[in-house]
Amino acid sequence: MSATAGPAGREAGRTCVIVNPAAGNVRAQALFRRIESAFAALGEPIDLVATTGPGHATALARTAAAAGYRAVCSVGGDGTLAETATALVGTGIPLAVVPRGTANQVAANLGIPMGLQAAIRVAVTGRSVDMDAGSIDGRVFALAAGAGFDAAVMQHATRALKERWGFGAYVYAALKVWADAPRTLYRIVADGEELHVAAMSVLVANVGALYSTFPPGRMEISPEPETAWCDGLFDVVVLQPTNVPRFAGLLARLAIRGFGGDGLLHLRARQVRVEGDPVVPFQVDGDFAGHTPFDATVLPGALRVLTPYPFP
Length: 312
Fold this sequence. Notes:
Blueprint: E1 15-19, H1 28-41, E2 46-50, H2 56-67, E3 71-76, H3 78-88, E4 95-99, H4 105-110, H5 116-125, E5 127-136, E6 139-141, E7 144-148, H6 149-156, H7 159-165, H8 168-178, E8 184-190, E9 193-199, E10 201-205, E11 209-213, E12 216-220, E13 234-239, H9 244-257, E14 264-269, E15 271-277, E16 281-284, E17 287-291, E18 294-307
């Protein structure tokens, strides 16, 4: 399906830019002017719209897809990206990404620059590639869904904290849940294979690495991190340490030495169910989403994304 395949195609040749004005703690009007100027400098006509709350990016992107825009550009964090992607999956209309959030994990995995002008250049001139997506009860995710310690951190890293402290909100939340980190017996069903394991965290990942800015680092969560987002499979990563010091040690080892080692179980699957006893919070693309159980299904190559490199 072509990038101008909307029913009417009346906006072919234009880019719809969806901006989360709360992401990145930047004054909205100043951000809008910078975005408009950067696109204009590249000769790209745009229509800029701002989100007003959770779920609004999906509604805006769905309208843009029906109008047949050349591309839909998400300006915000991983949550805004996921909402936008929910409306674009299966349409063939490319998603462009201008990272302005706290973590920006999807952009980092795809090699999209963090600078606004450089990211907008990719949105205009980048190569369109097919990316896998995940789905939980119709909610699309591009990054990962996770249960346990990471989800508890996301639950406590509220939007207000992220707007005020940026990545420091995650550090604060991690310290807050440190003493009461959940120790849980998980039942994981991956493509029909059942596993029972005690663990701190279970991650159902669509990408191959996680990045941090404080301290700077890259933690591989797949044996093939460069192509994990387009292989048609989830990487299911079970972090087994059942106390916080060992959990922190495992994360440090992954960041320093790369993927693998004691205390980590790894599975690959197209369909995954995660149950917790007792029930624990789970997150989707960095946003608290509820409590276990959850069922995730991979959507191979369902999302077209503009990237700076000739990925496979």
